[in-house]
Amino acid sequence: MKHGQPPLSNPTINDIARVAEVSLATVDRVLNARPGVREATVKKVNRAIAELGYVRDAAAANLARGRTYNFVFILPSNKNEFLSSLEAQIEHLGQSIRHERTQLTYVRVAAFDPVALAEAIDAIDTATVDGVAIFGPETPSVRDSIALLRSQGVTVVSLVADIPSSERDHYVGVDNIAAGRTAAQLMGKFIGQREGKILVLTGSMLARDHLERRLGFDAVMTRDFPHLDVLASLEGRDDPDLIARLLPDTLADNPNIIGIYSSAAGNEGLLRFFASRTGMPRPVVVAHELTQLSREALSNDVFDAVISQDTGHLVRSAVRIMRAKRDRLPIQTAQERIRIDVYLKENMPP
Amino acid sequence: MKHGQPPLSNPTINDIARVAEVSLATVDRVLNARPGVREATVKKVNRAIAELGYVRDAAAANLARGRTYNFVFILPSNKNEFLSSLEAQIEHLGQSIRHERTQLTYVRVAAFDPVALAEAIDAIDTATVDGVAIFGPETPSVRDSIALLRSQGVTVVSLVADIPSSERDHYVGVDNIAAGRTAAQLMGKFIGQREGKILVLTGSMLARDHLERRLGFDAVMTRDFPHLDVLASLEGRDDPDLIARLLPDTLADNPNIIGIYSSAAGNEGLLRFFASRTGMPRPVVVAHELTQLSREALSNDVFDAVISQDTGHLVRSAVRIMRAKRDRLPIQTAQERIRIDVYLKENMPP
DNA sequence: GTGAAAGCGCTAACAA
DNA sequence: TTGTTAGCGCTTTCAC
Lengths: 350, 350
Fold this sequence. Notes:
The first copy, chain A, is an alpha/beta fold. Helix content of chain A is 46%, strand content 17%. Chain A has 3 domains: 13-56, Orthogonal Bundle (434 Repressor (Amino-terminal Domain)); 68-173 and 311-338, Response regulator (Rossmann fold); 176-308, Response regulator (Rossmann fold), CATH 3.40.50.2300. In chain A, helix 1 crosses helix 3 (39-52) and helix 10 (240-253) crosses helix 11. Chain A is elongated, with a radius of gyration of 25 Å. The two termini of chain A are 37 Å apart. Chain A binds a DNA duplex through residues 12-14, 22-29, 31-32, 36-38, 41, 56-57, 59-66.
């Protein structure tokens, strides 16, 4: 690829019109698959398009259309740092793309509550909303509500936790099975040869992301670290109080816990418990989501590793995908893959 | 943030012109800081802009301007997978933004050769090129060439390895000191209590990225893992043949090497050496850059961890930054920060 | 079925 | 120093 190539200049609909010997309006009809064009004319135009290698200028098209995008995020209503971060990213991006004719809003629905979620989805105003990003549990009622939404022409993406049984257009989030596998690998390698029990702290088995992480975690633990004994999941419902209450009993029942996998949004409860229980030999801890609390825990060597997904990336990606769907443009899959970030003390971003 | 907000509709220059009681052309002059407007008029217009909260529609502006962007990447000419990947990303992105009036090209210059690099920079056609991304060593001659380029109005970003002494507009790449620190932390944690020597394989001490990684690596090793003995760097100049030749002697001289940090582009030589030397007790290996070879090495448990930077992100970020500079638009720093990716067997992307 | 013409928000001649 | 006007590439009435 030599530097100093011929200057760029792409064909426009004018060129197509000239070559196909039709008017601009007809080219536009063909481009947008609008009805009322004779078959032969369609062919002529398509031939010209192919011949000239025409690609539509999306910016100009949107300008002419005066199109605006209205996207809604549906998030769980419980309070934790991951959700606040997601919320902040939505507001921030919403501000900065207001001037690209794109409007972002969000609603909150009770966590782990499929009925409330389905109601929220049903309440979407399909006349004005172009796309919805949903972070919530996968159940039949949710699936049905999504199907209804899609049938009205609204783009639906699942966020953070997939809803594969539904007709969602796309999933935006990490591969949670792989995330669980990664947690297991870190846990096993950090523990080394020692033997003992591993506690898995989860949120709810209704949450597909939590479930998948556990699956991945178990698979690698069983295969690569059979000398470690992984206990049944402790369901903390992402509630700090509940978690801080449950932990002492569990630890008392299982004296030889040498590793803890905090696989959901239970970091606050876990850290509160650690703070109350000083002098206890510190287990290896692998947690999820880089936030203020988990950053401090990494700094203080309370957490050994944090597996994370970039909330900024999640939101930007969801918006790009909903826009692309609305414009019937292809999705750049490589750019939209959400990575499983691994953070240790030393590679935390500033 | 409630869903179902007032529909968006942003003020345009027409609104400004009306409120400020001037013509479109005058608004345009003020917006673009063009000369020939009376001070009082400028004030009037700016007051209207502030009052209406006007933000220019960049897409419409670029359409009207017919502006094209011509960006050149300068890369080292040696062959390795990281560079091929960078090259592929440039070609790929170049294809997909050809239709956004943006042209990407690249040139290759001899690796670790400041004179050749300075010459390549001097050879840039400043009349047609809007921005240059440079991946190469930092020396006085390079610094001077960059200064000259910038003085002609060309945007300059340093890529992968920073050139902070120069007047580059921006650095696109990871914090290499932190990358080295991360490598050390992984190495130390994976080795555990055992004692022994650590070999650091580097490319060239002329390369700022290589140098910084070593600095970060040593800092954490000394502080957190004093029982490990880090040897002087083996400079492999990223040359597989040279590396495969140097390694046997080094290993013979130091029988107790239990860890290897492959901090530059020497994976191929290292793996070739491993292949030739079967039956040797495998050291813990931390390497850089996720590529075909390093992926296989992770899969086969030959490498324990790979620290990486996403080449797609590097290229997209460099282009976004060069565009923003050209348009005098602000840079979204959060989005442009290149992360230090940590890959283990289980979190490799597919 | 097809085409002519106006206009999206902005820029850039060219006048005045 | 300021204003008028013709586009950029595309969409969208409204005629024919």
